[in-house]
Automatic annotation (TrEMBL):
The keyword Lipoprotein does not apply. It comes from Sinorhizobium saheli. One of its GO terms (biological process) is bacterial-type flagellum-dependent swarming motility. A flexible structure which links the flagellar filament to the drive apparatus in the basal body. This is Flagellar hook protein FlgE. SUPFAM superfamilies: Flagellar hook protein flgE. Residues 358-402 form the Flagellar basal-body/hook protein C-terminal domain. The lineage of its organism: Bacteria, Pseudomonadati, Pseudomonadota, Alphaproteobacteria, Hyphomicrobiales. Residues 84-136 form the Flagellar hook protein FlgE/F/G-like D1 domain. Keywords: Bacterial flagellum, Cell projection, Cilium, Flagellum.
Amino acid sequence: MSLYGTMRTGVSGMNAQANRLSTVAENIANSSTVGYKRASTEFSSMILPSSSGSYNSGGVQTQVRYSISDQGATTYTTSASDLAISGGGFFIVQGADGQEYLTRAGAFVEDDQGNLVNTAGFTLMGYEYEAGADPTVVVNGFDGLTEVNLASEGLTATGSTTGAMGANLPSGASNGDVKTTSLIVYDSQGNTRILDFNYTKVADNQWELEIIDRTSSTSLGTATLDFDEDGVLTTSPANLTLDGTAISPIAGTGAILNDIVIDFSETTQLGTAFTPDGGKIDGNAPSKVSGYQIDTDGIVYIKYANGDLEPRYRIALADVQSPDKLIPESGNVYSQGVDSGVIITGFAGSGSFGTILSGALESSNVDIADELTSMIESQRNYTANSKVFQTGSELLEVLVNLKR
């Protein structure tokens, strides 16, 4: 066996233990870092060919692995923008370079523009709601994603476009009897208009519905309501589109009333008193944004002072086949690796994706006791390898002195 080989083996062992100490140091330093995943050093032997008369010592090589798929403990906070994932998946965030990354670090706060950013400055990404419709996810890419922005818009108003009014019409009413109820709707500036629903019995099992704007006495639409012998509505379709342009704006405003589709499918004709169900309508009067709310499906709602919730964004999640093979980047984020598999995007609560917890954070998965144990082991092993190197050096010195 070569003495130089012995010394090289000792150096290899010391380098390996130094790498292990480096991961231990990194783990301990990040034991309180939100969403941090523990690094570990794995060892494998390096064997050199040997002859029958001598043995050539090889060495040891190391590979750093990250326990990315190992979920940390969940801790709860008082901030609604703190987010944790219970189950699989990663938040999609965007760096200052415009590149998307994956992370489990969900300590998000609003920046000066209202965007949600985490501690490392990465911006949370999601899909924007358009006209209240649930967004469609792009499963194999980041197209369509936008920054989740919670900037307050002050007072906002939304004009009505859809509503419903149900009622029980008394089957014993005489022809010509009129029953009336009303519904408040909103124009484009949030001004209220009162619509009267007038039901007139015209024949057995048949009523005429006329909807009138109370202020202008303008008729906005009529429908014939037919019922079967059981008092069930048979009119189809069971809705009526009101012509908003038929109503003049409130004096001094340029507000318009949208066309409004009224659903009356819950109307019945039974042997009891006239009973309107109260009706419902979308839109709202001017109301100030008072906050936001994030549910377990990742839907971000803007909350108004009147208690209404409006969906604005849906947080996107991403996952890969082998999370432990993702490439760690600075800022506690990950990028796709050659061996990690293809990135798949989706929404919380679907497929392999977990649910989103608002007011919670995922802690580091580092166990300090384990790290301190590993530190002691590495220290002892480093010392032993240094002794091998020292012994080889001393033997080499003996050989050199034999010449003297």
